[in-house]
Amino acid sequence: MTIKVAVVGAAGRMGATVCEAVEAAEDMELTARLDAGDPILSESLGGADVAVEFSVPSASEANTLAILEAGADAVVGTTGWTEESLGRVRETAERLGRSAVIAPNYALSAVLVMSFAEKAAPYFESVEVLEMHHPNKVDAPSGTAISTASRIAKARAEAGVPAGPDATQTDPDGARGARIDGVNVHAVRLRGLNAHEQVMLGNPGEQLVIRQDSFDRSSFMPGVLLAVRSVRGRGGLTWGLDSIMGL
Amino acid sequence: MTIKVAVVGAAGRMGATVCEAVEAAEDMELTARLDAGDPILSESLGGADVAVEFSVPSASEANTLAILEAGADAVVGTTGWTEESLGRVRETAERLGRSAVIAPNYALSAVLVMSFAEKAAPYFESVEVLEMHHPNKVDAPSGTAISTASRIAKARAEAGVPAGPDATQTDPDGARGARIDGVNVHAVRLRGLNAHEQVMLGNPGEQLVIRQDSFDRSSFMPGVLLAVRSVRGRGGLTWGLDSIMGL
Amino acid sequence: MTIKVAVVGAAGRMGATVCEAVEAAEDMELTARLDAGDPILSESLGGADVAVEFSVPSASEANTLAILEAGADAVVGTTGWTEESLGRVRETAERLGRSAVIAPNYALSAVLVMSFAEKAAPYFESVEVLEMHHPNKVDAPSGTAISTASRIAKARAEAGVPAGPDATQTDPDGARGARIDGVNVHAVRLRGLNAHEQVMLGNPGEQLVIRQDSFDRSSFMPGVLLAVRSVRGRGGLTWGLDSIMGL
Amino acid sequence: MTIKVAVVGAAGRMGATVCEAVEAAEDMELTARLDAGDPILSESLGGADVAVEFSVPSASEANTLAILEAGADAVVGTTGWTEESLGRVRETAERLGRSAVIAPNYALSAVLVMSFAEKAAPYFESVEVLEMHHPNKVDAPSGTAISTASRIAKARAEAGVPAGPDATQTDPDGARGARIDGVNVHAVRLRGLNAHEQVMLGNPGEQLVIRQDSFDRSSFMPGVLLAVRSVRGRGGLTWGLDSIMGL
Asked: Where do the domains of chain C lie, and which CATH numbers do they carry?
């Protein structure tokens, strides 16, 4: 059974890549490409079962609500959501009997690194996070690394694991990096790289390294398609891909 | 509350390392060191709650049954178990109301790599396994790598994922390595290494790498101590650390 | 002083990327784009100082000779050269007082990995080569890996270093990979990867790993531009970038 | 021809490891083990051709001068040398027609990483250094990492290469690490690790990674033995293993 898919924000770089991925998927049909200014209605979506939304933070909530009102389920990749915005999407989806998936990261490898790091962290004495990006990135560390460190810290706190050992006494230039919730985070910027994250965990005599590489925009497509195939019938709001992936 | 621990096979290299680890653990007391020829009885175990068994395959089943009969729970690290042997340990433990943990690998990082690889494998087009060991190892690939590949293959088959893409037409010298249940496995032998495994998974635009390093024998101790702390009250036989670790 | 550069094979994927790189370089001017069938003459090259040739093996020697005859130096990226073809280019360049650079690989990182591996190999007991590519590649191992292994083997032989230790007795499925001149070579094929090579060297207690990643075609451009800037006045034929890079 | 070797500081951990390595080497004979307080004379050195010195910074210069006066060549692993101390060793060696090798690091892999990083650095837009150590280390970054960054910076300055690109605008917690001579250096501390260094270099579309692992003290032995075999006849002072290794 073919899933009818519309793309909102189809003129953007991510939106255009989603259009290509949907057209290449054997079980999907692209019914509409909408851009800024196009009305979001049942007709303009071409009778889509699911609409994928990649626009800008200032437009994303209104677009998502309109998608649900138009009778489609929503898969949203735009970032910058607040708890309040998410609450309004949840309420609208529940009221209308529709479903929305909103995820901060559609790279399956990134979702898995965070989940695996969280699961492994209570079993190791030491854990540190290294993120590597292209040198045009303006913020350090990356949002994904902050989120990873926070989830690691929470998992260790819940398991009663103490902070990792660190005898550092002199570090005049800050080589030990940032501490996010007690977890050291390091940011590398290198021409040629795109977006990469590595979590290192250590015990006496052993090390566990979990690493992901997003080489380009296409890395988000397997996650977007997975959400499109899974959104139907979930009901209300699903935040992140973890529950869809059984993590 | 202190756990009383006996070690069977205490003169061996692994057994000696276990004795050290038990003595260093604040919540444990070493009650006895037994070697080949020593009778395994309640008295000779020093009233141990748990006996850790690291001997040789030819002695391990008899030792484990004797531990259970002597009124202790068993944590067993010797390899080479058959289904029949495991069945006899399960029956004995259940009949006596005791518990046994038998694991093919006590390195937490190795257990996690296998479990994570299994969970991730259905979400990626490609997956290959690389194991690296010291050059004195006589078999290739390692048992852990074979087990990892089998679990990956099973998880992909159950999820209906096809074999990974591979256009190789000419490979006169076998550079593509072994195929274990359809998963390519590569074995590196290098002076200076001990035991290391790396699983690589690929999708369009992204890669996930899960790697573990066992630098020396001490890498097994966190897993042995975890089993000692968890065996009590589990009942019957627990195979591997996965369920103990909530994997 | 601006270098005038023509591109022969400008309609191909590599050629088109070279055109972009030349246009983006502040010290270069793109004077002509030639394709299959276009005559290669001083006028058609637009008075170029240097012509970059990326065509097909069947055309490359004739193109290169024509470039030299037309009064330009040549930088050639097409593969598949024989000793005889290289000899004719050398003779022609020397006769005309021109220079040609022909390299089997223009990725600087790949050139460096081979050179560094060769320099390091005599100092380590063990060395193995791992190459990783996209799954559409038809041959294994890669030409670069074969070349790397051969150079390693030669350097070790010249230094009187024995073969690396390897106690493998059972390897029923070929996990130990290919042996190229006595050096084990492993080939991984993974969706999402492009072209990557890793050389691992081991001694008691230490490991050296030299790795390069070519994420896409643009990885060849720094090497092509380096050759364009260096070819003038070298005289005759320069094979590979090693001598240009002082390796 | 067997080389007669004495060890000064034989009771220390490094000294004891050197004694084992010398005894295991087929081309060497251990003639004496000297410790703090033992006089260093031709007789007490047992007629050694070469004396290996691993003591403490406060004793090392006096020991080295005494070794040279006693008629042996010196291979020195103690750290903490000043230019003045080195000058006195050089003068003494030259005056007596003897030779001394003093190296800040005898791990061949570490020596090679520094040399290769220096050679590669001018060819890449970006370069960063990552060092990883056991968590008992009191200083960050490591001396080796500082030295590596300095050599990289010097090589780039001499080649006229500008600083690497970095658009970072917000980094409130210092995730970008230390800047040593304009090169970012990151320090990881992880239980289970010993001493590891990784240099990452990036260009458009490509990356070069040079990494070394010192798993334990034995990693210094191949370098010490190389120096023992090479010191004879060099004359004066040789600083570091680079020139011995032809780097």
From this structure: 3-102+218-239 (3.40.50.720), 108-215 (3.30.360.10)
